[in-house]
Amino acid sequence: MSTKKQTITIQNEQLCATFSAQGAETLSLCDLRTSHEYLWWGDERWWHGTSPILFPITGGMWNGRTLHDGIELRIPKHGFASKCLWRVVAHEAASVTFALSSSDDDVQKYREAYPFRYEVRVRYTLDGRTLRAEFFVENREPEQTLYFQMGGHPGIALPDWMEPRHPDGYLKLEGTPRRLLRAGEQGCIEVEDDMAPRSFPVPLNDEGLVELRTETLANEALIFDEQVTGATVLSRDGEPVARVTSTAPVWLFWSPQGIPSPFICCEPWYGLPDLQGFEGEISERPYIQSARAGQTWQGGYAVEVF
pLDDT truncated to tens, each residue of the chain (306 aa)? Predict the structure, then answer.
């Protein structure tokens, strides 16, 4: 079996989850009793991904660049972790841990874009009807602080999806959703004249739910900062499908623009795309995360299925 195509499976009494070593991406989350698949399966007609990991940035940078101590860095949108082969460093019946280090072969091509020493790990664990993803970012620099962003991108399949019925489903948001940010030019956050983020109303219906319609997601994604703590995806009939929770300060809800879609991505991000016009240091990027020399940062998310 080709290493690039290597898959790893874990399971408990209720669920089975499969992952790819390429990107440490979750490929499947399946009910063992009913064989129901909860994750989007990556059909190219809509989106080839299923649940990529975003590192060392989330979203894009203004003009594709940022600075570190005055030196220009050009990091690709969403970073490069999803494009690299991760190592399996631990594997038990219901848990698997992947690692990606700055010294790994696949990472070397990005060394100029992100010239720091680090190791990123993600530990996936099945706990009852929940898949937990735990992120660890270890700073291996001897003296300087490591700056980065990190995010999850799980795509939840909408059951019984059939084009062109609307809505495709619903989102029940947890927290205090009161305003939206919006990605505009270059995928960066729209700003007011004073360079403050521009805000927009949250499209809640009379039941307090977000209806998953083409027009609802016409501006790339619904983007919240410091407002959402979790979200439950509901079917057309209002039945719960999956609940995603996280401590992440930023949440995005995305499906392809302009077309009805059979899935919705619930994305907890420890970071935000640049504000339009931003030309500062990486340490000043919105919701930047950091780890001091020798320290390890932690984050993550969980997907509970019904």
Answer: 334 469 999 999 999 999 999 999 999 999 999 999 999 999 999 999 999 999 999 999 999 999 999 999 999 999 999 999 999 999 999 999 999 999 999 999 999 999 999 999 999 999 999 999 999 999 999 999 999 999 999 999 999 887 667 799 999 999 999 999 999 999 999 999 888 999 999 999 999 999 999 999 988 899 999 999 999 999 999 999 999 999 999 999 999 998 889 999 999 999 999 999 999 999 999 999 999 999 999 999 999 999
CA atoms within 13 A on the CB side of 298: 3
Euclidean distance between CA atoms 47 and 139, whole angstroms: 33
Q: Which amino acid is at 7?
A: T
Identify the DSSP state of 285: S
In angstroms, the CA 147 to CA 303 distance is: 27
167, 260 contact by CB (below 8 A) = no
Residue 96 near residue 123 (C-beta atoms within 8 A): yes
- Separation CA 89–CA 250 (nearest Å): 29
